[in-house]
Input
Amino acid sequence: MHHHGFLWTGPKARFDDEALRRPPHPEPPPAGSRPELVQRCREVAAEFAATEIPPLETAYWLVKPRSSVRGTWEEPKEAVTWLAEQLDDYAPRFASEWDRDATHLTLLIDSALVRLSLGADASLGFYLERPSYLSLAVVTCSPHRSRPNLPCPVRQS
Output
């Protein structure tokens, strides 16, 4: 078992486009569907795995481009160290004073360590200035606990 780190920042409007954050439906739209529905389904199918937009379900980071992986660690403590470094770097830009609170950030890091140690994922999100959004995730891999069929992005050929 190991852990992959993912980081995305971007415009809040792009983050809010939930259709691109969901995996494509396994079945195409039924015959006779509206052309705009068919087009939107094609767009989502083509873009979901190709973009670095955060998925709604954390496990689906594993199907995002390999370039999305910001680090890979064998031990949860190493992954949490990376997560803490990202929080330190971005905290001054957090839109909410509460999110910048050091005690709050320490609790988030402690919770992430517990989850990763149990084989689960850690996913955090923060609104930044302008309005932008920061998504941080550490995903447990090989295999993923809830989605064992998803491939490891680093060990893919």
